[in-house]
Amino acid sequence: EEVKSLFQKYPGLRSDMPSMRSVGYRQSLEYLKGDVEKKDCIHKIIFATRQLAKRQMTWMRSMEDLNLFDCISDNLSNEVIAFVKNKIV
Predict the structure, then answer these.
(1) CA of 1: how far to CAs of 5, 19, 24, 69, 88, in Å?
(2) pTM
(3) Which domain, by its residues, includes 25?
(4) 12-22: buried (b, 16+ CB within 10 Å) or exposed (e) per residue?
(5) Measured between alpha carbons, how far is 32 from 9 in angstroms, rounded to an integer?
(6) Are 32 and 3 in contact (CB under 8 A)?
(7) What is the pLDDT of residues 2-58, one digit of tens each?
């Protein structure tokens, strides 16, 4: 819906524009233009998301003193609070 709305508002949008570099935008625009089928669009978005996640993980691994938290942990809030308290003291 978001990309469809943008495409309607700005009919000159092209997939090579910097504004369309976000994951899902370029792929959705291809679908809306009829260049790819919906299932292929979904697969392309999933693939692009995985590529982005891999690049982010590579970048984060290069950071010193990086602390990762499991975002689906039932105890996430307590873990983060304990970490922050430990850093403050």
Answers:
(1) 6, 16, 12, 32, 44
(2) 0.67
(3) 2-64
(4) ebeeeeeebee
(5) 14
(6) yes
(7) 888 888 898 888 878 888 888 998 899 889 889 999 999 999 999 999 999 999 989
Residue 73's identity, in one-letter code, is: S
Q: How many domains does the chain have?
A: 1
Is 17 within a domain? yes
CATH number at residue 15: 1.10.287.890
Handedness of CA 8, 39, 47, 68 (dihedral sign): positive
State the Cα–Cα distance between residues 38 and 64, nearest whole angstrom.
Answer: 41
Closest-CA residue to 33 (of 62, 11, 1, 66) = 11
Helices (H), ranges, the chain: 2-9, 25-32, 38-61, 76-88
The answer to the question of residue 81 being in a domain is no
Residue 49 near residue 25 (C-beta atoms within 8 A) = no
Question: Is residue 16 in a domain?
Answer: yes
